[in-house]
Design goal:
The protein is mainly alpha-helical. The longest helix has about 70 residues, at about 1-70. The chain has two helices and no strands. The chain is elongated, with a radius of gyration of 33 Å. The protein starts with a helix and ends with a helix.
């Protein structure tokens, strides 16, 4: 009887170990699959980033050529006007962004005040 019980216990341990090993194997395969997906994503991102760097280098070279040539008076006036328009647009965007940010902070402050009152009650 004792031998039968020990045999059953040994079989249960073996079954549990097999289940654990299967679970570990399944998880390992899922992790390997996720890692492969991540590696592929990184490779794609790296290739896209290299393409973007190449495009930026081309643009920088064009800007260097344009800057190295002396501008005419008309070009200088155009550049000043474009710069002023760009600065105005950026200022407007920043003002809008700060307005939204301020609004969100005020809303969070109100919610925090409500929460503090609820906690104190």
């Amino acid at each position: 009887m004792k031998l039968r019980v020990e045999g059953l216990e040994a079989r249960l341990r073996t079954d549990r170990q097999a289940d654990l090993l299967r679970e570990i194997d399944d998880r390992t395969r899922r992790l390997e699959s996720a890692l492969t997906t991540l590696e592929a994503g990184f490779a794609t991102a790296r290739a896209e980033m290299n393409e973007q760097f190449d495009a930026v280098e081309v643009e920088v070279a064009g800007v260097r050529r344009a800057v190295s040539a002396p501008p005419s008076e008309e070009e200088a006036v155009d550049v000043q006007a474009e710069t002023a328009e760009g600065v105005a647009a950026i200022r407007s965007e920043l003002a809008d962004g700060f307005g939204c940010f301020r609004s969100e902070l005020l809303d969070l402050g109100i919610k925090l005040d409500r929460l503090m009152k609820a906690v104190e009650a």
